User: What shape does this take?
Amino acid sequence: MRKYVVILAAVAALLTGGLPASAAGGWAVTYLDPVPGALAPGTSYTIGFWVLQHGVHPFEGDLGTTGLTLTDAKGRPTTFTGTPLPEAGHYVTAVSLPKGTYTIEGVQGIFAPYEVGTLTVPGGIEIRPVPPELRDAGATEQDHWGAIRPPGFPAGKGTPAQTSAAPTSAPAAAPSAAQVAAEQESATAVQERVAGQEGGGFPPYTLLLAAVGGALFTLLAVRLARRRREPDPSEPSGRSSGETSEGLSDGGGDGRSGEEGDVVVFNG
Assistant: This one.
């Protein structure tokens, strides 16, 4: 019994280790590039934003889907997908909204969404300050960018980090507003994927670990059931030897007496 408990504990530890970064304590902050001072209803605007792990540096790896989710006063969200720009952690999207007030959340791939602020149409954007506990946790000297950098960050001294390898010919041009706006046709599908990520999607191998854990639970239950069905050696099983002998003896006697009854003996 004890060895099964140890195995199940090990499987539970592996499952915990397989959680995505958002469930394991990783976090990020979304910063917006400067936007127009007045936003008009039904007008397209291109908005740049940065997704920085711990609020200070780009994520080293496949971050996943990024974007901005704007939720109106009735709780209806609309997600605008981000397109990567040459700078590490830098993205752009195009938005167009009717009149109203919206909360802005940064879609941050494997990290949990981040509340950016409030957008009013007509009007502007009110940025929510970075929480002190996040600001203090990530307050380290960084040097990831050059002249193009997140708002409030000093210019770096080295070569700016890139999101992809440098082209051998002419550098790729940043996407135009029309190209970015065309991507909004898939906003609904992106919103569904984001909802799945917020739910804490698990890597495929965690399903295998869960199956192993379930098999171990089943095996343990079967063994316990068998132990309950096994008879106690101290209890008698079947009829006693005396009862068996008596039964055989009675049956045998009846057979012989019957046969002897058919024999007639004549004495000279």
Remarks:
- The CA atoms of residues 45 and 95 lie 5 Å apart.
- Residues 1-18+202-225 form one domain.
